[in-house]
């Protein structure tokens, strides 16, 4: 069942208001007849001409909006100067109401264009269907399109213009939840390495569980790639790295490691490099983003370590890659564990807990319960120390000076961090990142 209807009047000429009103009235009448029991939310998308006020645009459509009582509280005119701006505003309205099954009614020649905007601004969470805007013979001139022919792929020039329009609009949006904040470790020398762990502030993601500096997009979540890209651009600008030379691990919850410059595996949870100016990153939304730095050989790495990756030894696999590829000495490698779910909050089924108990009984609390508490940070430290990393070269939540602590519990700090454990399936993601300075 359709939950929302978008009526696209954006391309229709402003000097033909009577025809537009007739089109809108007929369209709303058809919607009301088809959905008298379960009226959908209706958004009328129109262009706010340069220098005009939204109120004026809306008032010009009022005659067509009168009389639709069942739609009255569910009907809104949304005006903006670009398609990107008006569609993104509509997306915010849809997300406020948790609507995802959407019909778009639009001029035939706008369909392919609109599909490109939707592909950029929405994810597979949303379902769209399209219907032609019914026009009368004397209003066929309203179907305005400068370059487009339905059913044909848009020219690359048009695609580039759409991407540029979306990017410019997103760049103009204000940051949410305060300034962008980066946590840094005193263990990693900042004269050689640029590094940090992100928090959730300072981005443009507006959905509560993703707000505001979400740095991961997937088909199962509501933040599209373009929003994550804008958040990353703002992070890169604040941190001082090049977002075009940014490499994030391809999470598989295992222990494969990618060597920059060599054939890239399909999936990997660790990545290493000795190239200057290349930023490596590992995500975390309860799982541990782990950073590695060797100031002697000037090499670095990043790893994503969830409970499965911890048991599979992804951190030592990343260390071993630095040793074998760049000749690093185990005793020179520094390791920092970023914000992640703490032993105060994290629980696993008893069968999985047994594996951590074998590493060290202190990694498990309430071992005899059905879902014991697990300390994946302690397990990571123990495996690193057993592998040859010096205890003093590992920074985690065992640090004595709490003013230096950056290994906060993500689940305990909803104002600072995302947490899958706490927030459910539509969760945001922070990252740990590191690069060798030029």
Automatic annotation (TrEMBL):
InterPro entries referenced in this protein's UniProt entry, alphabetically: Cu_polyphenol_OxRdtase, Cu_polyphenol_OxRdtase_sf, Cytotoxic_necrot_fac-like_cat
Family: Belongs to the purine nucleoside phosphorylase YfiH/LACC1 family.
GO cellular component: a single term: peroxisome
Quaternary structure (record): Interacts with FASN. Interacts with SDHA. Interacts with ATF6, EIF2AK3 and ERN1.
Catalytic activity as recorded in UniProt: guanosine + phosphate = alpha-D-ribose 1-phosphate + guanine; inosine + phosphate = alpha-D-ribose 1-phosphate + hypoxanthine; S-methyl-5'-thioadenosine + phosphate = 5-(methylsulfanyl)-alpha-D-ribose 1-phosphate + adenine; adenosine + H2O + H(+) = inosine + NH4(+)
Subcellular location: Cytoplasm; Endoplasmic reticulum; Nucleus; Peroxisome
MF-aspect GO terms: copper ion binding; hydrolase activity; S-methyl-5-thioadenosine phosphorylase activity
UniProt record, GO biological process: inflammatory response; innate immune response; regulation of defense response
Principal place of residence: cytoplasm
Name by which UniProt lists this protein: Purine nucleoside phosphorylase LACC1
């Amino acid at each position: 069942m359709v939950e929302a209807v978008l009526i696209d009047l954006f391309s229709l000429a402003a000097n033909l208001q009577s025809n537009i009103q007739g089109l809108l009235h007929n369209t709303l009448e058809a919607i009301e007849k088809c959905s008298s029991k379960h009226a959908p939310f209706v958004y009328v998308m129109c262009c706010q001409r340069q220098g005009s006020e939204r109120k004026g645009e809306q008032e010009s459509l009022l005659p067509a909006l009168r009389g639709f009582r069942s739609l009255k509280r569910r009907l809104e005119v949304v005006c903006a100067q670009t398609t990107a701006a008006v569609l993104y505003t509509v997306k915010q309205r849809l997300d406020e109401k948790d609507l995802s099954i959407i019909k778009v009614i639009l001029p035939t020649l706008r369909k392919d264009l609109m599909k490109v905007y939707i592909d950029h601004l929405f994810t597979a969470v949303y379902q769209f269907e399209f219907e032609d805007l019914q026009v009368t013979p004397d209003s066929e001139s309203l179907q305005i399109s400068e370059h487009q022919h339905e059913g044909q792929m848009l020219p690359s020039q048009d695609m580039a213009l759409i991407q540029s329009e979306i990017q410019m609009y997103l760049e103009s949006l204000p940051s949410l939840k305060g300034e962008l904040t980066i946590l840094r470790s005193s263990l990693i020398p900042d004269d050689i390495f640029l590094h940090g762990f992100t928090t959730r502030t300072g981005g443009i993601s507006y959905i509560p569980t993703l707000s505001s500096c979400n740095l991961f997009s997937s088909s199962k979540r509501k933040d599209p790639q373009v929003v994550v890209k804008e958040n990353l651009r703002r992070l890169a600008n604040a941190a001082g790295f090049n977002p075009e030379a940014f490499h994030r691990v391809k999470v598989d919850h295992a222990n494969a490691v990618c060597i920059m410059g060599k054939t890239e595996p399909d999936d990997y949870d660790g990545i290493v490099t000795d190239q200057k100016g290349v930023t490596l990153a590992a995500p975390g939304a309860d799982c541990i983003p782990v950073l590695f730095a060797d100031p002697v050989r000037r090499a670095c790495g990043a790893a994503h370590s969830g409970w499965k990756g911890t048991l599979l030894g992804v951190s030592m696999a990343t260390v071993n890659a630095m040793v074998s590829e760049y000749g690093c000495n185990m005793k020179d490698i520094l390791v920092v564990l970023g914000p992640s779910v703490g032993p105060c909050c994290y629980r696993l089924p008893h069968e999985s807990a047994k594996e951590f108990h074998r590493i060290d009984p202190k990694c498990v609390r309430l071992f005899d319960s059905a879902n014991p508490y697990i300390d994946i940070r302690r397990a990571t430290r123990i495996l690193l120390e057993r592998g040859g990393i010096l205890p003093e070269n590992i920074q985690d939540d065992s640090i004595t000076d709490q003013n230096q602590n950056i290994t906060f519990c993500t689940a305990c700090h909803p104002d600072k961090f995302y947490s899958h454990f706490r927030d459910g399936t539509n969760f945001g993601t922070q990252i740990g990142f590191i690069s060798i300075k030029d």
